[in-house]
Specification:
2 copies of one chain form a homodimer.
Chain A: H1 11-18, H2 22-29, H3 37-49, E1 65-70, H4 76-91, E2 95-100, H5 105-117, E3 123-126, H6 132-140, E4 145-148, E5 161-164, H7 166-180, E6 185-188, H8 195-210, E7 220-221, H9 227-238, E8 246-249, H10 252-264, E9 274-279, H11 282-286, E10 292-295, H12 298-313, E11 322-325, E12 328-330
Helix pairs in contact in A: 1-2, 1-3, 4-12, 7-8, 9-10
Chain B binds a DNA duplex (16 and 16 nucleotides) through helix 2.
DNA sequence: TTGTATGCGTTATCAC
DNA sequence: GTGATAACGCATACAA
């Protein structure tokens, strides 16, 4: 008489167990209004514990909203990603909700609450490291998550991640400077806890080693991707007894900070010190001089992330594709042969 | 027996006339699910034609989403506004939906459709000139609209608008250059169809007139706010027989284009040609040299716009405040006394 | 009371 | 038929 191990978990069964009607369970599944918070929770819990899966390719409610979450909206970086996501979302008739959680738990809680009340169809997290409980929450709500530019190795489980070939980019930039004839090449690093920072640094090191150039720890200065740190690090490098003839900054913004450090010393970018950045933000092309940099396909990364969440929202089970889109060295006017050669 | 002119329009009456139950009308009013599209339209039409007003200060559904609409997301400009709106929205537990409609009617239609299906609580339009029928639609849907940086004089009716004191900013920048001793001052204009462009140009002219400096049409060059046009206009100005000793660009991005034009001629910004911009984007502080510019409180404009829509969404009838927030001249290193004085 | 909002079941319907 | 969704009304809760 025990029928606990029936193979099919149907909403009829859930409804009976929860003591509600079938349509009510259906409403919970589709995140619609007209369900009491308590009932909704009870049903969600049962759905989860019974491991309910949708039958066939039934009409999954058309996606209406995807969330795009940044830590901060303080960089031109962010707009590029937004453009990519908005572009795909717009075409699919889906709204893009942009948020900044500032790495605060209260802020995150507020966002999560809002996300829930408006029934978001998917979340794209940029660089941020959402706390595991937040991931768990989203899982419970059946909201798919995609990470752009993963901050850490494994966000927890099988979350799809979209990044760029940071190591290859660091390598290419450094090789470019080596080919120009530079031997003392400074490096301005990004935050060390970020995966992309470490990959860029390793690419820099790998290029130097391959060229047989000895590593000098003083040539590697810390930074945080923002302008000010580039200025500070650049100043430190230029004030060394044996200053570098070229500086590779792990972000365009830091490269512009280096520009300012160079200028303040009465030196000229390219003529006296070569500078290479990373990102290829729009202003790189319009800086004076135009910045040689490693192009990161930010818009394309946003597009791919959007396509991926929307696909997941449709119920298509993507097998967590950890994609890395190619970076590309863009040579402009800020890099030249070292002076006096 | 004729009771047509009963003073109170109640949803019971609407329900009877539409041939549906009272709860159904209530659902339409609150933008909830479980109403057939046809029914919803019929009821909306009746509500509108009978001029239905909510009784008392009944629980207006808490706002969940506001829309922020740009023409294009291709400028650092946009992030600043987004930051302001997101900040206020986030604090109020409201999501910010960012869209770019690219001035296309099909794109706008798609956005409007999505906006409707997810029941947006308010719209903030940036610079864009939404077509009158779109405004009419939003009115029908009872969605409040606020305009930031109004593109044109009157968006149609009594829509609240939040701008900046563009004329005063243009005046201040020009006066600053005059005080430094410049007499030939070039101007790189923005798109002439935009209100803010014309105000900045008029401010420039007013300052010159007040100082008794004759206007020279050749010193005013057209632009479109983007880098490239600044470069072109700057080049034209510097190639004049009697080139200006200072150039005031109506946007920071164009000012950077001017930087490049100056550099390409082997000249130096500030030492040879003073340059002043408009906006005070984050990169203005970090340009080489740091740019003297007119600060526009973009984040604050976004914040105010968000507060205003949310207030309107709550039913508080703001009497269309056409606010202009103050601009402020920020003197940095790109402006100096003319050479040889 | 009267007006309005919410939660949930009933009935019809649709896809397989 | 069976699983699931869509549209609407009933009963109720609650505010003025």
């Amino acid at each position: 008489m025990n029928t606990d191990d029936e193979p099919r978990v149907t909403i009829t069964a859930i409804a009976r167990e929860a003591g509600v009607s079938v349509p009510t369970v259906s409403r919970v599944l589709n995140g619609r209004s007209d369900v009491a918070p308590g009932t909704r929770e009870r049903v969600e819990e049962l759905l989860r514990s019974h491991g309910y899966r949708r039958r066939g390719s039934r009409t999954v409610r058309r996606a209406e909203l995807v969330d795009l979450v940044f830590n901060d909206l303080d960089s031109p970086w962010a707009v590029e990603i937004i453009r990519g996501v908005e572009d795909v979302g717009h075409a699919a008739g889906v709204g893009t909700v942009v948020s900044a959680i500032h790495s605060e738990s209260t802020s995150t809680r507020k966002w999560l609450q809002n996300l829930r009340s408006r029934a978001s169809d998917g979340v794209i997290v940029v660089t941020s490291h959402l706390a595991p409980p937040v991931h768990a929450q989203l899982r419970r709500l059946n909201v798919p998550v995609v990470v752009v530019d993963p901050a850490t190795g494994v966000p927890g489980t099988d979350v799809p991640a979209i990044g760029a070939t940071n190591w290859a980019g660091g390598l290419a930039a450094t090789e470019h400077l080596l080919e120009l004839g530079h031997r003392r090449i400074g490096f301005v690093a990004g935050p060390t806890h970020l995966l992309c920072s470490r990959a860029r640094l390793d690419g820099y090191r790998a290029a130097l080693e391959a060229a047989g150039v000895p590593l000098d720890d003083r040539l590697v200065q810390p930074g945080d991707f923002y302008h000010a740190s580039g200025f500070t690090a650049g100043s430190t490098l230029l004030d060394l007894d044996d200053p570098p003839t070229a500086i590779f900054a792990a972000s365009d913004q830091m490269a512009f900070g280096v520009y300012e450090a160079v200028r303040r010393r009465g030196l000229r970018v390219a003529d006296d010190v070569s500078v290479v950045g990373f990102d290829d933000l729009p202003e790189a092309r319009w800086a004076s001089p135009p910045l040689t940099t490693v192009r990161q396909p930010l818009v394309e990364m946003g597009r791919l992330a959007a396509r991926t969440v929307l696909r997941l929202a449709q119920g298509e089970e993507t097998e967590s594709p950890r994609v890395e889109l190619a970076t590309e060295l863009v040579v402009r006017d800020s890099s030249a042969r070292p002076a006096g050669r």
